[in-house]
Amino acid sequence: MKKIHVSTTVNGENVEYLCDPRETVLDVLRDRLNLTGAKEGCGTGDCGACSVTVDDRLVCSCLMLGVEAEGKNIATVEGMATGEKLHPLQKKFIEYAALQCGICTPGILVAAKSLLEKNPDPTETEVRYWLAGNLCRCTGYDKIIRAVMDTAADMREAS
Amino acid sequence: MQYHSPTSFEDAAALAAEATGVTRFLAGGTDVLVQLRADITTPDTLIDIKKIPNVQAISRSDDGGWTIGVAVSGAEMREHKELGQDWPGLVEAMDLIGSTQVQGRATLVGNLCNGSPAADSVPAMVAAGASVSVTGPQGTRQVPVADIPVSPGRTSLVQGEVISAVHIPARGSNAGDAYLRFIPRTEMDIAVVGCAINVELDSNGIITQARVSLGAVAPTVLLVPEAADAIIGSALDDGALDKLAKAASAACNPISDKRGTVEFRTHVAGVLAKRAAKIAYARAQGENT
Predict the structure, then answer these.
(1) What's the alpha-carbon Rg for chain B, to the nearest Å?
(2) B181 near B191, Cβ under 8 Å?
(3) Would you kindly state where each structural domain of chain B is located, as residue ranges?
(4) Tens-place pLDDT, residues B166-197
(5) Interface ipTM
(6) Which of B79, B93, B115, B191 is the most exposed place for a label (fewest CB within 10 A)?
């Protein structure tokens, strides 16, 4: 099958790749760009483990084709830390032990970051609804929600 | 699979008309790509319509109505304050679909063309009296949303036709809409019953016009004129509400499945009709609900 040339931006860097039109953004990130933070859980948009933002909009990268990324701005979990300096959400997730196996964590971090950029002062209900598309089978969610709420409070204080 | 990204609906329609095998149009992809990845439907021709100008636009028409581009996502509708003020029922129906991630991509037209009788946004569009532009080899025509679904998973569109815009009428004064659905949990589920109601009142609070639409209780989304007639001419008193519930239940022709039995769906349709009517009526009176 004829491969299609795509130019896009991932975590602020210009990247180009050739992909089959059936390949998803998730396939491209993991298999062509070696960015393995986004995970494939279900592959059908139910679990959120593959969450990334595209032009600042939270999406499942398994439900977007690689060819659709032309000219877009993609952000993944790999772009959250600045060098060795973790994003406040990442630090707080460690502090709260808001992860166990870690498969869902990159998607939840990306989703939570996207929430706090839109809404720096969410209620617990708003956090729970926003993250309803990110499944975690380990933690029971409570630590995740508390970590996000506490990060939001810290970030509001710092700003 | 051939991938195309035309820059006009005429070109998109021409590509589809000439294609052989299975053709799918791609906007948000939240159904098309799920079917592709689950090996349910692998299109031979995939036509991405997002390179066409204005598909991402929400704009107010000269008559006060709205034109919503076919690639506008649920999240974009939700963030559009004026659209939400005019048509809160339509916006909340779309907003009920899927997760935040799905909302980032899912579209009204995708929900419509997927053809599910349980599609949340479709009863809301039908109640609103929405229509769609259909572009095909013979040009573009307007079709009421209610005439698009014909059976589960099937639409009235023929090969070479593509929906090119959604048109929502002008809101008018003293008018309001609402959508409610029943699901067994609080989020992230498919409607067991959905009900959208749109009403217009006169200055005395009497309902002069109404449209009632039900989802998930028949092979297609239903427009139920008998249910509208039950409340037209009333101020939504208890007697009118009871007649409304009866007419809504009487219109149901559902299946029994793991989500709900025939009896349950039929009963809940009446209950939701009453509740949605009260919300739509309050909104028509200017209450912010």
Answers:
(1) 19
(2) yes
(3) 2-116+131-168, 175-284
(4) 999 999 999 999 999 999 988 889 999 999 99
(5) 0.96
(6) B79
